[in-house]
Design goal:
The protein is of the alpha+beta class. The protein has a domain at about 1-75: Jelly Rolls (Sandwich). The relative contact order is 0.15. The protein has helices at about 65-75, 80-100, 105-120, 125-135, 140-145, and strands at about 5-10, 15-20, 25-30, 35, 50-55, 60-65. About 40% of the residues lie in helices and about 20% in strands. The model is unreliable at about 150-155 (pLDDT under 50). The two termini are about 25 Å apart. It is elongated and about 55 Å long. The chain has a three-stranded antiparallel beta sheet with strand order 4-1-6. A three-stranded antiparallel beta sheet has the order 3-2-5. The longest helix is centred in the middle third of the chain and has 23 residues, at about 80-100.
């Protein structure tokens, strides 16, 4: 079990975040190359287990970055705070986009917005995890996809 002591930089691969609710997995995010991932951690460094799980959906190459190292770099190099702030802003923006997406009541509109934000990677995402992320059943997503022509979607992975 991870004590949230590390962040990971994805050099290659695909990772999904998910939570469990009543024995059901609900996808919370997807992370690809050149992104930083890690379990949700309290900003004050209070050690606790995250309710979010991370799962590699492809073979991944990761660089493990201990939080202790990050704190040391912040202490020794004040300019590191600028980099940290920018990385935080990127993560916050992605979380905000996900929160907005989750609040769109119409399933087809949710899917259209999802596709418009990440069309470069959508063919790498298994359909069942896309459906979970979008808060719909696979059958609903399949019906929506059959009505919308997207030439880049060619590799349905169940």
């Amino acid at each position: 079990m991870d004590h949230n002591a590390y962040l990971f930089f994805i050099t290659s691969g695909l990772v999904r975040g998910f939570v469990r609710n009543n024995n059901k997995e609900i996808t919370t995010r997807f992370s690809f190359e050149n992104e930083i991932i890690g379990a949700i951690r309290h900003p004050d460094g209070i050690e606790s287990y995250s309710t979010e799980y991370l799962q590699a959906l492809e073979d991944c190459h990761l660089i493990r970055i201990p939080y202790a190292l990050i704190e040391t770099v912040y202490a020794k190099f004040p300019e590191a705070h600028i980099i940290g702030r920018k990385l935080f802003a990127i993560q916050y923006y992605a979380a905000s986009q996900s929160a907005i997406l989750a609040r769109i009541p119409n399933a087809a509109d949710r899917y259209s917005m999802f596709v418009s934000k990440g069309i470069n990677y959508i063919d790498r995402l298994p359909v069942k995890f896309q459906a979970s992320y979008l808060g719909m059943r696979v059958e609903t997503l399949s019906r929506i996809r059959s009505k919308i022509e997207l030439p880049l979607i060619s590799n349905d992975k169940f």
